[in-house]
Design a protein that fits this description.
The complex is a heterodimer of chains A (213) and B (456).
Chain A (H helix, E strand, L loop, with lengths): L4 E3 L6 E3 L7 E3 L5 E6 L2 E7 L15 E4 L2 E13 L2 E10 L4 E7 L2 E8 L16 E4 L2 E18 L10 E8 L4 E6 L6 E8 L11 E2 L5
Antiparallel strand pairs in A: 1-2, 3-4, 4-5, 6-7, 7-8, 7-12, 8-9, 9-10, 10-15, 11-12, 12-13, 13-14, 14-15
Chain B lengths: L7 E2 L5 E2 L6 E2 L9 E3 L6 E3 L7 E3 L16 E4 L2 E15 L2 E12 L3 E8 L2 E8 L4 E4 L5 E5 L2 E20 L8 E9 L2 E7 L4 E9 L1 H7 L20 H6 L2 H22 L3 E10 L9 E2 L3 E17 L3 E11 L5 E15 L2 E7 L1 E22 L14 E9 L5 H11 L2 H17 L10 H8 L6
Antiparallel strand pairs in B: 2-3, 4-5, 4-14, 5-6, 7-8, 8-9, 8-14, 9-10, 10-11, 11-17, 12-13, 13-14, 14-15, 15-16, 16-17, 18-25, 19-24, 20-24, 20-25, 21-22, 21-24, 22-23
The chains are: A mainly beta (213), B alpha+beta (456).
Chain lengths: 213, 456
């Protein structure tokens, strides 16, 4: 399958899309943030230098989640008062997309979900708030006011100019996990589960000097 | 980027502390949030290349980590590097109790911790799930995780006293969290709660010796002091915890042996004779029985003597004599029978039957020499008034012998009360320092709780 290609409107470099539904990508050469309108790309910003890399995952990393292969095609980097984390954008072999969050090597896979009951508003949520979704009892375990630090690669939406990003993280009693993203109105719900690093069978990881995977 | 492109993250460069100028080594490849200078204890933002100062404080205490920062060791299947160290404490009724935590890092697996209290160590893994709260039969709080029920041990405010190295959060001296521990030895579930966050972790008791070997530390691990909350009971105490199990095991063994040997027993009557003895008779009293064969190499021989007596006793001196070798086994048996009327009440004391087992008699041809004796009749007694003693002698080769098995079972029972107490002592010591002072299955706490003594 031939992948759609385009030209960076800023530097003229070829832009190769791994995912036909990508809305946004970054130019590997000039670091411009590009948003797709039909077939044309518009430069909407510039990626500042990304903070020091803290994850063994990189764009191009491949793995398997619940017997479905995926490839890492993009990411959003956040920081908050206990450090930084990555939301890696995953493209699955069946065409769906999801997120692999890597918060200091605590890994979780999640998917954008339609809430089956109304989400608590940003002023209603507190630590300990209980919320049931698809029959799973979830409890808010942390409230985070994150800073958007940067983006890389292909994303399913425009995401480049946010500064304050309030999140509520929810956990269940059986390893399920949810995030309510309050940067959108109405807020977005991501549902998923924590995963063991080994279970993802990741390939094409970064290497760390002095360490073997 | 093409898949498979090698991107090697280099070791972080050595940086200098902006406060005191000492070299600071960053080990966590940028994953840590804070780094504390080992020299001047200033806390720096490890995510910022300029190492912005987060906190300055006058060190109130200096603690030397037993495992130096930068040590690497293989534990639970992965290599871990010690990158941070802190001393924390709780205050219980005016007394500070300190423990130490080591931050372990692996760039692929993230962070783990080693916790040390009185030289008791545990390996701590953060857990993403929420344990399920509950109460036990004595109304004490529990948490269930992965099918294991943990009993609440203690809840206290944990204060950070001393920090060096790198941490996955912006650690600060003076930081206070609510720390709760739940134990199911050798494991512990712990929660740390702040206003905005609750984090759970699971610790597992680990022998100091194992750590010293894993991290190749010099010398030997200092010996643990006292009983730690998740210390596994020593082997002999664990055995003491199962006294009935052990008892039934050995009792079954004994009964099995008893059945086995009694089924194999021959139980062959080799001699069954009835004799009469006239006390007034003169001359040689002793006589010998016809010879009989004792089968087998070596087995016991049961001797039974039964007599018809009236207000007298009879003693039989006996010798079992091997016809071929002349070897003799000497023994004696006594029987008696008395009865009468005293103050209108009739009484009787009878022992007309006596038996004994001669152990380990070698096989061969034997005869028995019997020398009967009885109460000498009064002088001048008429032969008609002195009744002859009629008695029978029976010899049975290879009889089952039950008594020693019952004795064995009885002896097995003796240590049980002591073993139970040993186990209880260990559990009591384990729970001494808890919020309850008594083990979770103790009725004593329930009594206290109704009077409002607990601080839950």
């Amino acid at each position: 399958m031939s992948q759609p290609t385009a030209i960076c409107p800023n530097c003229g470099a070829p832009i190769r899309f791994r995912w036909s539904s990508a809305i946004q990508t970054t130019c590997e050469y000039c670091k411009s943030i590009l948003v797709r309108h039909d077939v044309n790309l518009t430069k909407v910003g510039q990626v500042a230098d990304l903070p020091p890399d803290i994850s063994p995952i990189q764009i191009g990393t491949e793995g398997t989640y619940r017997n479905t292969a995926f490839q890492v095609i993009g990411r959003i980097i956040y920081s908050h008062d206990i450090g930084a984390w990555n939301e890696w954008h995953l493209l699955f072999s069946n065409g769906s997309n999801g997120w692999l969050s890597d918060a200091q090597a605590e890994y979780a896979v999640s998917f954008l979900s339609n809430p089956d009951s109304p989400l608590p508003g940003p002023s209603e949520v507190y630590r300990g708030f209980q919320y049931t979704q698809q029959g799973v009892g979830l409890v808010v375990t942390s409230l985070t006011e994150a800073n958007y630090e940067g983006v890389e690669g292909e994303l399913p939406f425009q995401y480049w100019d946010k500064a304050r990003c309030p999140f509520a993280d929810l956990r269940s009693q059986d390893g399920r996990f949810a995030t309510i993203d309050y940067t959108e109105n109405p807020p977005l719900l991501f549902l998923g589960e924590f995963v063991e690093f080994e279970s993802l069978q990741l390939k094409f990881l970064k290497e760390f000097e002095g360490w073997t995977a | 980027m093409n898949p498979g492109a090698r991107k090697i993250v280099p070791k972080p460069k050595a940086l200098n502390c902006p406060s005191c100028g000492s070299a600071i080594e960053l080990r966590a490849m940028g994953a840590a949030a804070a780094v504390v200078c080992s020299y001047c204890s200033v806390t720096l933002d490890a995510t910022n290349p300029q190492l912005v100062i987060l906190q300055r404080f006058e060190a109130q205490m200096t603690v030397q980590p037993m495992i130096p920062l930068g040590s690497r060791g293989k534990l639970h299947g992965a290599v871990w590097e010690v990158i941070g160290f802190q001393q924390r404490g709780i205050n219980v009724e005016g007394t500070n109790y300190f423990w130490r935590e080591y931050v372990l890092f692996n760039p692929f697996k993230g962070f783990r911790y080693l916790s040390e209290y009185d030289n008791h160590w545990s390996f701590v893994t953060p857990i993403p799930s929420l344990p399920v709260p509950g109460v036990n039969n004595y109304n004490r709080p529990t948490m269930t995780f992965d099918g294991v029920v943990y009993d609440h041990f203690q809840t206290a405010q944990a204060y950070t006293w001393f920090v060096i190295g790198e941490f996955p959060w912006q650690v600060k001296v003076g930081e206070t969290v609510t720390a709760a521990d739940y134990v199911a030895a050798p494991k512990m579930l712990s929660s740390e709660t702040t206003e905005n966050e609750v984090n759970w972790s699971r610790g597992e008791y680990i022998d100091g010796k194992e750590l010293w070997a894993a991290f190749q530390l010099p010398g030997t691990a200092p010996p643990p002091v006292g009983v730690y909350s998740i210390q596994p009971a020593p082997v002999e105490v664990q055995a003491a915890g199962r006294p009935w199990k052990l008892f039934f095991l050995f009792a079954a063994l004994l009964i099995g042996m008893m059945i086995f040997f009694s089924m194999r027993a021959l139980e062959e009557t080799v001699l069954d004779q009835t004799y009469t003895f006239q006390p007034l008779a003169t001359g040689e009293k002793s006589f010998v029985t016809p010879p009989f064969q004792l089968k087998g190499n070596s087995a016991n021989l049961r001797v039974e003597v039964t007599g018809e007596l009236e207000n007298t006793w009879a003693f039989f001196g006996m010798a079992l004599i091997n016809e071929d070798t002349g070897q003799a086994f000497d023994f004696g048996r006594q029987i008696s029978s008395y009865h009468g009327v005293d103050e209108g009440e009739s009484w009787s004391e009878e022992d007309k039957h006596d038996a004994a087992i001669l152990p380990r008699i070698p096989g061969g041809k034997y005869y028995l020499r019997i020398e009967p004796e009885t109460e000498p009749p009064p002088a001048g007694a008429s032969p008609l008034s002195v009744k002859p003693v009629k008695y029978s002698v029976r010899l049975i080769r290879d009889v089952p012998f039950y008594f020693r098995y019952f004795l064995g079972v009885f002896l097995l029972l003796l240590p049980l009360p002591f073993m139970g107490r040993k186990r209880n002592n260990f559990e009591q010591t384990r729970w001494n320092e808890s919020d309850y002072g008594v083990p979770p299955n103790s009725i004593a706490w329930q009594a206290n709780s109704s009077s409002g003594d607990d601080d839950e």
